[in-house]
Write a structure and sequence with these properties.
Number of helices: 6
CATH class: Alpha Beta
Distance between the termini: 26 Å
CATH architecture: 3-Layer(aba) Sandwich
Number of domains: 1
Strand order of the largest sheet: 3-2-1-7
Radius of gyration: 16 Å
Oligomer: single chain
Order of helices and strands: HHEHEHEEEHEHE
Structural class: alpha/beta
Shape: globular
Number of strands: 7
Length: 160
């Protein structure tokens, strides 16, 4: 449990703790999103883009299958009527899939065993361990659009 808390704390520090980061994000994403626009944040992680997009007045569909990240998203944005937090993954085919999780490095969780195998040969990933997994529901991007609407902007940050 301590390792999981450490992994999420690292992510929070990286994505929410850098001074000026959210201001720069709003400036950048303001080119693509405005009040009332729909933004898809696929791989929402701990919500740094959700935060920036909401400050722009956009409606956000936050897609995140990792249970620990979902807890953070619900804590930060669960009461915001213009943020929909969906505990799913997006993939080429709808169904269910195994999501391999890295407790200490949650930014590299993946549904792709091939991707995990290929990056383990890279020295930058030498200390990463995918030490647990969860089964997640998977929808296609077309299904997401059919249920949530056409986004003005779609950010996809997933591994594999």
């Amino acid at each position: 449990m301590l390792a999981r808390a450490w992994g999420i704390t690292r992510s929070l520090a990286m994505y929410h703790g850098i001074p000026g980061r959210h201001r720069r994000m709003r400036r950048f994403y303001g080119q693509f999103l405005g009040p009332g626009d729909i933004g898809f944040d696929i791989g929402a992680h701990v919500g740094s883009r959700v935060r920036a997009w909401r400050r722009l007045g956009s409606r956000v569909i936050a897609i995140e299958p990792q249970p620990d990240c979902l807890r953070v998203l619900n804590l930060f944005f669960g009461r915001d009527k213009d943020v929909s937090i969906l505990p799913i993954a997006v993939g080429a085919k709808a169904g269910r899939a195994k999501l391999a999780l890295s407790t200490a490095t949650p930014t590299v969780s993946s549904m792709s065993a091939d991707w995990i195998e290929s990056v383990t040969a890279d020295r930058r990933f030498a200390s990463v361990r995918w030490d647990r997994s969860v089964e997640v529901d998977v929808v296609t991007l077309d299904e997401l659009i059919a249920t949530q609407g056409v986004p003005a902007f779609c950010k996809i940050d997933v591994e594999g």
